[in-house]
Design brief:
Keywords: Cell membrane, Glycoprotein, GPI-anchor, Heparan sulfate, Lipoprotein, Membrane, Proteoglycan, Signal. Pfam families: Glypican (PF01153). The structure is a single chain. Helices cover about 75% and strands about 0% of the residues. It has 6 helices and no strands.
């Protein structure tokens, strides 16, 4: 145990043979091993989940918006209620909702699955 003391080969062999009987550290190595194994399993699960979320996000970001939807979204930006520029304007919220539901219907379909994955 003394790092300053030189140990010869015969003593090393003797210590290696009786180390399992002496157990100088008690059951601490087994406890540490078990705790590390549990933490590595948890991290493996977290990393796997993050990888799956990453793949899903890349698929979501690969959405192509049609030219018709681009025109409707441009018109929607001119609506005072949709853009939030004038609260005194005549409401056109129905138009806003119809455009959003029509152009982003694919996103609305995956919303429940996305929320359950995040949960």
């Amino acid at each position: 145990m003394n790092p300053l003391r030189n140990v010869n080969e015969l003593e090393k062999d003797c210590m290696n043979q009786i180390q399992t009987d002496l157990k100088p550290f008690g059951n601490l190595p087994q406890k540490i091993s078990l705790l590390m194994e549990r933490s590595f399993i948890a991290w493996k699960t977290i990393l796997k989940t993050l990888d799956q979320a990453n793949e899903i996000l890349f698929k979501l970001l690969d959405v192509v918006i049609s030219p018709q939807c681009i025109n409707q979204l441009t018109k929607m930006q001119q609506c005072h209620v949709c853009s939030g520029s004038s609260p005194l304007s005549k409401p056109c919220s129905g138009y806003c909702l119809n455009v959003l539901k029509g152009c982003f219907a694919e996103m609305a379909e995956i919303d429940p699955q996305w929320n359950s994955m995040i949960g």
